[in-house]
Amino acid sequence: MRLLLIRHGQTPSNLDHLLDTAVPGPGLTDLGERQAATLPEALADEDIEAIYVSTLTRTQRTAAPLAAARGLDVIVRDGIRELSAGDLEMLPGDTEQGALYMKTAFAWAAGDTELRMPGGESGAEALARYDAVVAEAADSGARVVAMVSHGAAIRVWTAARAVNVDVPFAAAHPLENTGVVILEGSPADGWKALAWAGAVVTPAGEGGPAGWPVVGDAP
């Protein structure tokens, strides 16, 4: 299966770098709506057969133009929502306390999945819910699937599951609004990232999940 993981369009909370992860969350800014409107053309060469979105409003608004252009109904699944910020909810991501969010999330991708977000979910729980939606899409028989999801969730899941994406690469490459990560593979055989927001994936090498800024990564 070819899997397109698409970050939602810009939200008001993105402008303020806030860790806004609760359901249903905000809608899109005017720029976010324009970003969403460009997706049908940007993905014109992809033979998308199914479109999944999270339970957060911003993913559904982002996917709407693409779904309309392809004549597809969106499939809403809670499993691909953003990594829950727990006690860090609505804190500025560009503060020391806010940076704990991404530090914890990248620790999950590095294998410390029992670590828990302060007041929130563990890495095992977060990855399992995302895995379940990906597995559902793979079992559907669709050859090309788009999932409109969230920046931290996409980066962490890809770093944890793609054989050619390591934590330093994911940490060093924030995903802009409506940025796309393209993977191929299956839950049984594993995943390989083909492109990251238009760039060829080149892992940065081994490293530990500490100290990376959250600026630009707010959910």
What is this structure's SSE topology?
Elements: E1 2-7, H1 12-15, H2 30-42, E2 50-53, H3 57-70, E3 74-76, H4 96-109, H5 123-139, E4 144-149, H6 151-161, H7 167-172, E5 180-186, E6 190-196
Parallel strand pairs: 1-4, 2-3, 2-4
Antiparallel strand pairs: 1-5, 5-6
Strand order of the largest sheet: 3-2-4-1-5-6
- Average pLDDT, to the nearest integer? 92
What is the count of β-strands? 6
The percent range for strand residues is 15-25%
Which overall shape is indicated by the principal axes computed on the Cα atoms?
A: globular
Cα distance spanning the termini: 26 Å
Please describe the biggest sheet, giving its number of strands, its sense, and whether it closes into a barrel. Answer: 6 strands, mixed
Radius of gyration: 16 Å
The helix fraction, in percent, is 25-40%
Helix count equals 7
Structural class: alpha/beta
Low-confidence stretches: 205-217
H/E topology pattern: EHHEHEHHEHHEE
Pfam family, one: His_Phos_1
Organism: Streptomyces shaanxiensis
InterPro entries: His_Pase_superF_clade-1, His_PPase_superfam, PG/BPGM_mutase_AS, PGM_Phosphatase
Protein name: Histidine phosphatase family protein
Account of the protein in words:
With 219 residues, the chain is of the alpha/beta class. The chain is built from 7 helices and 6 strands. It has helices spanning 12-15, 30-42, 57-70, 96-109, 123-139, 151-161, 167-172, and strands spanning 2-7, 50-53, 74-76, 144-149, 180-186, 190-196. Strand 5 (180-186) and strand 6 (190-196) form a beta hairpin. The longest helix has 17 residues, at 123-139. The model is unreliable at 205-217 (pLDDT under 50). Pfam families: His_Phos_1. It comes from Streptomyces shaanxiensis. This is Histidine phosphatase family protein.
